[in-house]
Amino acid sequence: MLTNQHIAVIGGDARQLEIIRKLTELNADLYLIGFDQLDHGFTGATKCTLDEVKLTTLDAIVLPVSGTTIEGEVETIFSNEKVVLTADQLKQTPAHCTVYSGISNSCLNEMVAEASRTLVRLFERDDVAIYNSIPTVEGTVMMVIQHTDITIHQSNIAVLGLGRVGMSVARTFDALGANVSVGARKPEHIARITEMGLKPFHLSDLVNQVSHLDVCINTIPAQIVTSQVIAKMPSHTLVIDLASKPGGTDFRYAEKRGIKALLAPGLPGIVAPKTAGKIIANVLTQLLIERSQNGKENTP
Ligand code: NAP
């Protein structure tokens, strides 16, 4: 249980509702910031603004998957109020107060470092990233269906990257009957792609691997689908970029060439917010319980 644990949940989308539900079930004392337009009430949870929270009592702060914007703003779909987190606010929390987010950026990293608090990026964990790849893939299938006029079956699809998302994407499109090739740079990834019965290619050869593609799905968070690569694609190729913002595609060049290229962030929150929220809630509550059991005095 999380009895007497004071936790601020700041902003987010429908995924946070699962987190709030689970935290209230575990009897935590919750402050909900950026939820003033949420009709639903949760027992043990108080809707308030960041200024109204007693920061000195907080054991944990839960941010959305995206963390903050580069200006420190915490995005929320449940309020029109702008919520901005600052290092000065974090400094007012107790030393053991831990900040949880999905991913982070330089702004959040610097803010937490300046306040000497601990930041836990849940999406760096393999378990969270692998579970989360399931709704990500379902959202990708949805997008491919929405934006093409051909079946996935028998279509030529390249997946770039064989990480946690890339592997799930490649396997799913293969199971749907597509001709899947996968680009990677590590020999062990090339070996794994071969073992999966898919067509491997080295990313250094990407420019020569796209002339027959119907769909190119990028999962690599680096500039990889460059103008040189796009120039070799047929005009009907659909590029779906799953990598976190700003993605790995030269979108301006794609537009100039008339190639449809879509950055598709946050698919789990769009296609399956309840499942995606549960994935985060399960791991988050496990970590919070471990921390509370270890005792505040033992935490950094
Ligand atoms: P991951 O497990 O770290 O995989 C990333 C892959 O990119 C690895 O295969 C890695 O290969 C490769 N890579 C990284 N930098 C590279 C570079 N400079 N050149 C060539 N290859 C490079 O990450 P993930 O969990 O699969 O997530 C992939 C991306 O999708 C992330 O940006 C994540 O934030 C995003 N994501 C998006 C959604 C969505 O809804 N759109 C959902 C979940 C995740 P090496 O091992 O060779 O480095």
Class by SSE composition: alpha/beta
Sheet-strand content, in percent, reads 15-25%
Would you report the number of β strands? 12
Overall pLDDT: 94
Uncertain runs with pLDDT below 50, 5 residues or more?
A: none
> Which range best describes the helical content: under 10%, 10-25%, 25-40%, 40-55%, 55-70% or over 70%?
25-40%
Largest sheet: 6 strands, parallel
Shape: elongated
Number of helices: 10
Summarize the model shown.
By secondary structure, this protein is α/β, with parallel strands linked by helices.
What topology emerges from the helices and strands here?
Blueprint: E1 6-10, H1 15-25, E2 29-33, E3 45-48, E4 60-62, H2 87-91, E5 98-101, H3 106-115, E6 118-121, H4 126-147, E7 156-160, H5 164-175, E8 179-184, H6 187-195, E9 199-202, E10 215-218, H7 227-231, E11 238-241, H8 251-257, E12 260-263, H9 267-271, H10 273-294
Parallel strand pairs: 1-2, 1-4, 2-3, 4-5, 5-6, 7-8, 7-10, 8-9, 10-11, 11-12
The chain binds NADP nicotinamide-adenine-dinucleotide phosphate.
Structure, explained:
Helix 1 runs parallel beside helix 10 and helix 4 runs antiparallel to helix 10 (273-294). The mean pLDDT is 94. Strand 1 (6-10), helix 1 (15-25) and strand 2 form a beta-alpha-beta unit. The strands form 2 sheets. This protein has a 6-stranded parallel beta sheet, sandwiched between helices. Strands 9-8-7-10-11-12 form a 6-stranded parallel beta sheet. It is 36% helix and 17% strand. The radius of gyration is 21 Å and the shape is elongated. It has 300 residues and is an alpha/beta fold. Residues 129, 132, 136, 161-166, 184-186, 203, 219-222, 242-244, 264-268 line the site of NADP nicotinamide-adenine-dinucleotide phosphate (NAP).
